[in-house]
Structure formats: structure tokens, C-alpha cells
Amino acid sequence: MKDHLTIKDPQFEYRLFFGRLLFVTVIILLMTGVLIWRYGHLQIERYEDFATRADSNRVLARPVPPERGLIFDRNGILLADNRPSVNLSIVKERAENLDELLSELQQLVEISEYDLERFQRNLRNRARPYQAVPLRFNLSEQEQGVLAVNEYRLPGVQITAELLRYYPMGSYLAHVIGYVGSINDREIKRLDPVRYSGTHVVGKTGLEKFYEDQLLGEVGYEKVEVNARGRVMRKLERTPPKPGQDLHLYLDYRLQQTAMDALADQRGAVVAMDTATGGILAMASNPGFDPNLFVTGISHSNYRALLQDWKRPLFDRALLGQYPPGSTVKPIYALAALESGTISKGYKIYDPGFYQLKNDERKYRDWKKGGHGSNIYLRDAIIQSCDTVYYDIGFRMGIDVLSAYGSAFGLGAKTGIDMPSERAGIMPSREWKRGARGLAWYPGDTVNTSIGQGFTLTTPMQLAVATTRLATRGKIFKPRLAMRVGANDLTEISGQEKRIPIADGNWDYVIDAMKDVVHGPRGTAKIIAPGLSYEIAGKTGTAQVIGIKQDEEYDAEKVALLNRDHALFIAFAPVQAPKIAVAVLVENGEHGSSTAAPIARTVIDQYMENLSADSNAPAEEGRVNRGE
Amino acid sequence: MANDFVRHMQQPGSGLYGSGRRWQRVHLDLVLLLMLLAFMGAALFVIYSASGQSHYYLQRQITWYGIGLFFMLVAAQIPPRLLERWAILPYLGGIGLLIAVIFFGTGAKGAQRWLDIGGFRFQPSEIMKIAVPLMVASYLGRRMLPPSFRYVMASSVLIFLPPALVVVQPDLGTAILVGASGFFVLFLAGLPKRYLVTIAALAAMAVPVFWYFLLHDYQKRRIITLFNPEEDKLGAGWNIIQSTTAIGSGGWGGKGWMQGTQSQLDFLPESHTDFIVAVLAEDFGFVGIMLLLACYLMIIGRCMIISLRAQSMFGRLLAGSLTLTFFVYVFVNMGMVSGILPVVGVPLPLVSYGGTSIVTLMMGFGMLMAIATERKRER
Questions:
Q1: What CA–CA distance (Å, rounded) separates B306 from A211?
Q2: Which residues contact A119 (CB under 8 A, 6 or more apart)?
Q3: Which residue from A111, A393, A607, B76 has the least number of CB within 10 angstroms?
Q4: φ, ψ for residue B368 (rounded to 5)?
Q5: How close A148 comes to chain B (CA, Å)?
Q6: If 0-12 CB within 10 Å is exposed, 13-18 middle and 19+ buried, where does residue A460 land?
Q7: Does the beta-carbon distance from A227 to B262 stay under 8 Å?
């Protein structure tokens, strides 16, 4: 200690300290310079960048989904509505443990695998923390209640509302309107990301799909100021969305309801057309299903139940069902035989109950054992549905004539209706058989074709089109469901003035015979005549079902049922000034006369009633009747 | 020693400069005190904006300022000679508490930093920010300077023991700051250049060792984040992206008091504590930052004058070291918020909300004032 004190030199030490402090001062100034440079770099050089970034943090341009166009029937009855739905969303950052929260929520409300998958996908793709990701749509009132009670212990849960599609008529129009559903991986690739930025559903089937473009509308934008937790603090500006265009149909909902109810628990289809325009008045396929199940994504159990139902409710029988038309083609081939000059109106035969080709052992049997007897004229063949006559005239006309007339009436070709899918059916011809089967055409094929059997397949829609052409004496219409889209009248498109060239006398002859199918004493559909205040022209049909074998899927009783013939009936009314044409098909209904014809009469009766009711009341068309 | 103290009290008004006689009597440096008061007053405006116009935080901060001023006043009354003689006590006491933290400490996120004594929680590492420079200054003040090898080694042990105990908590940031505060004393005492070179070389070699053996994952993540904040923009990078955005969007003149969207809309995390300088930068722009730096430099300048005028080598070393440490806090905080340093928990001196840091800093200023008002020692 002592030596230190003796040699400690305060002057020297002060100078040393002073030097060090000076050095440190320089360092401090340099480091301050670094800070100034850094803040200057951020605040002056890169000001624009960061100002933009701060704004994009704060200002959220969020798409405002347009309201989807509504769908109305011809009388302004609302068929597709938009209803507010209450949704459950999750803000991940506020949840203490996401997995626990999800399993907890699963105890409280129904959450499907699909919900979870969609939720996880959206969670990965979100743009910022604190963004709410939807987990469940359409919470029931009970679920909302359960969540409200438990909300305090579920941090991160958010309940929001949006508009969701709702189909008030449910299964009555499931196949016609179709449904919207969540956009899936495949659709997202082909859809315009801008137009769909606010929308997470797209038309999947039916009119919703066909008129997707018009129904969708244009997305709007809303600039809002949000805080870091995504809460909207205030609205800055707004470009309102343009709602989609409303769709007004030719369809008369009362008629649709009548048709579905008339089919009751039978599997089948009814198509009714307005003979003046080609507008579809009713297009029923029974059984239907509830399209509302699909709007936010159907649950697996519900979907499996629909798929596995033996009655095939998802199958649109009116457009996709292909059935042999049976005897319903007889009026067409009668016109063919007369117009082609194959026979004259004086043609008559004796019907022993079967027909044989020359040099052929095979007997083509009439449906009536023992036959219809002697002096059977062509009109009798229509009224009583005599097969033997048709075997003969069919063979004499040849397949080329049959095929040409069948095609002229629209058989075996897509009708061009404004729906996303339909089947073409088959109007057999030599070319068709060579192409499809690789075989030559045999005379026996012609015989089968002449009574609408053999290879012939038609959809109920095609039969309705053919019936309309019979009713209008050859006017060619494209069937249309939509009458107007927004302000666009679509009627002109359907009003094409084309005609099948057939002589008036031949029309008179065949239509008169069709009238007697219902009104004649021996008509196959005379069962529906009593009490009619107007005249119906019609034709029954029975289509053989190509054998279904017994296997594990169907028990014996069901096989017996499924092997029964399909029942068909086509009709138009009133005979003198037709207003409506109807085609009815009942799967395994056995007899067109007893099963299908009464359904047609019920539908036509209802339409006649509607017409007189509507002509007494002021026209309600165009009335906007947005859901209550 | 006690006699010295009595003599001070008995001879009023015999200070270095006459105008400050009355202040000298209460051992306060008027210039520094006015600077600090003005600075605190201005800082309250920033706290108010940063906390989202919270009167609660405003009142609490005013309370902390009051407590800090009280501690400053008390510290100023302790004669530097007393400090020099008894520097070993806070040092050993602090080491004892640090060891206690290791065994009885409480904390969050896997780090034990706090000691709970009768419901009062505090960080012993905070004491060391003053105790270490005090100890080293007391040790070297009596030695012949520049220090010989022996004294350098002995000082090094004094300097590195506390940080070693802090690092295991783990709290690397505080450990480095504590170590630095001791090192500044050694440097100001005239640590020969060859040691500086050696230390620099050792530090360079220590980097990989730190990276692979000493750094925890969360610490590594902070450093990775520094270089590429976008990599984890919703997680670790979020803070730094939002703070640079707040600073940058302030521009020249700022968006106006309480108009900063980044802070008002809660994009900026820790806005009233560690990241408060971003609020200031956003509200008042580059001009505000320049004013802040000017204020700090003025305070630092005053402190340097005090250290030069100190009556003893101990006083000079302690005052110089406290001044440098103060600047380092400023630099580290402003550097981390602006994205040139990794995010460590260092508040902005005297501005950030929070009691511990304010009290420690004010005690330091109190000591500086004690040094400033010390009368000439008799030899």
C-alpha cells in the first residue's frame, strides 16, 4: 500500500483519464452517428416504403361479397333466397391452445371432418395474425346459445353473420335450381380470383350452375382501418358490390308442387312445357333431396345416405334418366308412315296378336294376347296402342324413315335446355348401330324400334319436347327454364319459327287419334277422361326394363319391383288450342294408362285452373318478392 | 470518515462555483437535475401516446419518476469517500442475491431472474449494474494507473464474476451490460492497448462458442430474426417488422402526437416499454429522434464534465463508467428497435415505462451528483 501512494502521480493519472474520456467521447459521437444514420435511413430514405407498409397494415381492403341473384318462378314466388347465417370463426392468436379449443368446440357443436379440413386450409393461407378463420357456418339457434353461454372460457372464438343461400322450396326444386356449395380445389383453379374474392360458394348443379355468371354479381370493396387484432376501427371508403341478376323462370311453382305431389312416393319424372314458348312449366324428378344441405358443405353421413338410397334421390330423372319411350313414339311414327307415303289413311290390317317377318320363325308379339282383331286402322293402332300395326308399318318404312322422323321430333339428341347437363338418349339408325355396336342393321331391329323399344332411349325432357312439337303441329322450340335474367328478356331466343314439314291432314288424323286415346271408348287412357272440362290428346307407353338380376344389393322383392315395366304417358291440352304439353315417366310403374296418365291429368288440371285464376287476377309477374 | 461527512454539513456554500451553493449543500447538481426533470416531463407525453392515452400508465410512470428522484436524492447524500470505502458491501451483497436467484428465483419463459422477498419482486442483476462499476472503481482508484497486469487480472475477476452468475439465469443481455459497466472502469483507468487487442481477439473466438454452447434457442432466433425478419413474420420477426415500419413511416416530421397508426392500432408490440422509441419516431419523426439524441447527449455531456471535475480518481472512474453505461443503454435500445441489434430486454433510459430501470438509473445520477458536489479532499 505504501509504495503505491509514494509513486502515484495525480497529474499523470488525470491526463490519462482525460485522454480516455476524450476517446470515449469520440466513440459515443460515432455511435450516435450510427443511430442517426439508421433512423435517417428508415425515416427519410425509406420513408415511402414504410409509409406504404404502415398503411397496408392498417388499411384492409376487404372484398364485400355481392348478393347473389334471386330466383323466382313465373308468378314471382321466391325459389332461391339469401338468408343471414351465423358463423363460428376462430382467431388463432387469441386461443390459448388451438387443438384444445377445437376439441372443446367439438363437444359443444357439430364439427365435421370437412369443417376441420377447410378450417386448417384457410388458417394456413391467412394474411395476418388475428385474422378470423371460419370453422362452422349456419349455427342453429341452440348452438348459438351453447356458444354464448360458454364464450367466456373459449378465447379466440368469434361469432359472425353473413348471407347464405337458402332454398325455401327444398326438395321440390332440388334438381331444377340445383345448389351452391363451397368452392373446391378444382374450381378455384378455373374461377376468376378477383370476382370470387368475397365469395366462397359457387353454383354446383342446376340453374345455379348454368346461370352462375349472371347470378354472381360483382364484388365490391371496403377499405377499413383495423388494429393489429384485426378489429375494425373505422370504415374509410366503400365501393359497393353489384348484386347478381335475378332469374325469372317460366316455371310455375304451383305446377311443380302438383307434379311432385302427384308422383308421391313413386320414382319418376314429370316435365310440363308451355306450348307457346317452349318454357318449362314444371320439371319434377322424384324423389328429390334438400339442397340446403349442400350450401355450406354436406356432412359425410348425410351425403352417404343420399348416395346409398336405392331410390337415387340425387339422380335427375327428367334430364339424365334415359328410358325406352315405348308406345309414346307411336304418334310420331304414324305421322312418318303417312307423310312418307308408306301407307294411306285407308290402311288396315288383321291383328292376330303377333307379327312375323318373311323367312323368320320369330314372332313379334302384341301386348294384347290374341290381338286386336280385324279391321285395325292406323288410328286404332294409336288409340289401342296396337303393336302389330307398328311392326308392319315400321318394317315397311324402314329404319331410315323412322330415324329421320324420330330425330325431327327431338328424340336421341340433347334438347339444348338451359341446364348444365342432360343426356342425349338414342334414336337408333344404321350409322348409330355401326358406330356404337359395330354391327349391321337387321330388319328385326326396325321392328323393335317401331314400338319405341330395342335400342331407343329418351329422356323425359325429350318426350316433353316431342309432345310440344306434336301439340304445335311441328313448331320447333328449344326448352327453356329462364324467362328473364335481370332485365334481359330471353323469350326471343326460344321463339324460333321452324316447323317440321308435315301435311295438315296428317296432323289432324294423328292428333284426333291421340284425343281418342283419352276420350274414345276404347282409348288406353280413357280412365282419365271422366270429369274433364276440356279435351286432352295423349299417348300411353310401357317400356320394358332390361332384366336386373338378384344380387346382394337387392333382395328378391326389390328385384321383382325393379323388373316391372316403366309407365309412360305423353299429353297435351286443350286439343284445339294447346297450352301445355306433358311427359310423365314412372319407373317400374307397369302401366302407362293406370299409373302415368292420372299424374298427367292432375298436372294439366292444375295448369288449367292456374290459367283461369291468373287471367282473373292482375298479372303478378315481375313482382319482387324477396323472402320475408 | 464520519468526520468528513460532518464537516461537509458544517461548511455551507464553499463549493466550486458560487451560484450553486445552496444546491451544493443538498448535494444536487442543478444543471443535471434540470435536464433530467425536463427530459422526464417530455417523456411523459410519449408514454401517454404509447400506452394508448392511458391515465393509469401515466400516473404510474409519474410515481416511478418520483421514487427515482427520491433515490437520486438519497444517493446524492452519500459522500463518495464512503462509497469508495464500502463498495465491497453492495458488491458482495449483490453476488449473494444472484446466487439466491439461482436457487430460489422465480421467473417466466424458462428464465429465473426475479427474487421474491416478502411480496416485493426485484432483479438482483439490476443492482449489479451499479455495484460492479462501484467495486471496480473503488479497487482501481487506489492503484497506480495505468494498472499493471496484476491489477488488470484482479479487476477482471471482479468484472466477470457477476455476469457469469447472470448468464446462467439466463439473461445474456443484462450479463453483457453488467460486464460492460465494469469494463468501462478498467478502460477509463487506462487499460493498456495490448489488453484491448487481446480482448478483441478473445471475443472474436468466443462467438462460435457462444453460438453453439451458450445461446439458447430463443436467443439464436432473435439473432437470425435480426438478419431476416421476414422469415418468421408472424412470430419472432413481427416485433422488428412492426417497429421499423413505425419508425420509417414517421418520416421527417412524424404523424403527430398520438397519431401514429402503428402504435395506436396496436401493431407495435411493447409500445410503452422496450419499443417506446418507435412510438416517438412515429409520432414526431426524424426531428423527434434528433431531439431525443440531443437530450441524451446533453445529459451525457454534463455527466462527463462532472467526471472530469471529480475530486478523486474513484469519482472520475465511477462517474465516467456510469455515463458510458447510460449511453450504452440508449444505443442498445435504439439499435434493437431500429433493427441493427438483436432484440434484448433493454428499456430506453428514463423513457420506457417501468420502475426498476428508472430507480437504478436515478441512483446512478444521484451518485454522479454526490461526486459533483464533493469538496476538495485534503491530503
A1: 85
A2: A90, A133, A134, A135
A3: A111
A4: -60, -40
A5: 27
A6: buried
A7: no
Q: What's the length of chain B?
A: 379
Q: Are A395 and A375 in contact (CB under 8 A)?
A: no
Phi, psi for residue A443 in degrees, rounded to 5: -55, -35
What's the pLDDT tens digit per position in A436-487? Answer: 889 999 988 999 999 999 899 999 999 999 999 999 999 888 899 999 998 8
Q: Provide CB contacts within 8 A for B49, sequence distance 6+.
A: B257, B258, B260, B263, B264, B279, B283
Contacts of B266 in chain A (CB under 8 A): 227-229
Instruction: Classify residue A151 by its DSSP letter.
Output: G
Distance, in Å, from the CA atom of B92 to the CA atom of B110, rounded to the nearest integer, reads 26
Q: Which of A327, A429, A450, A593 does the annotation list as catalytic?
A: A327
What strand order describes the sheet that includes A280-286? A280-286, A268-274, A580-586, A566-573, A537-543
Sequential DSSP letters for A598-617: HHHHHHHHHHHHHHHHHHHS
Least CB–CB distance from A227: residue in B238, B252, B265:
B265
- Residues A20-66 pLDDT 10s: 999 999 999 999 999 999 999 999 999 999 998 888 888 877 788 89
Using alpha carbons only, give the angle A410, A415, A418 rounded to the nearest 5 degrees.
160
Start-end of H helices in B105-234: 124-141, 149-167, 172-188, 193-209, 217-227
For A149-161, what is the mean pLDDT?
81
Cα B232 → chain centroid = 31
Query: With b meaning 16 or more CB within 10 Å and e meaning fewer, what string describes B56-90?
Result: ebbebbeebbeebbebbbebbbbbbbebbeebeeb
Give dist(CA B327, CA B22) in Å, integer: 30
**ipTM for this prediction:** 0.90
The span from the CA of A312 to the CA of A317, in Å, is: 9
Mean pLDDT of A421-429: 93
CB contact under 8 A, B334 and A35: yes
The partner residues of A485 in beta bridges, in order of sequence, read A247, A488
Active site residue A327: yes
Task: Compare CB distances from A38 to B252, B307, B340 and report the shortest one's residue.
Answer: B340
pTM for the full predicted model: 0.66
Question: Torsion over CA of A553, A557, A561 and A564, rounded to 10 degrees?
Answer: 110
Give A426's DSSP letter: B
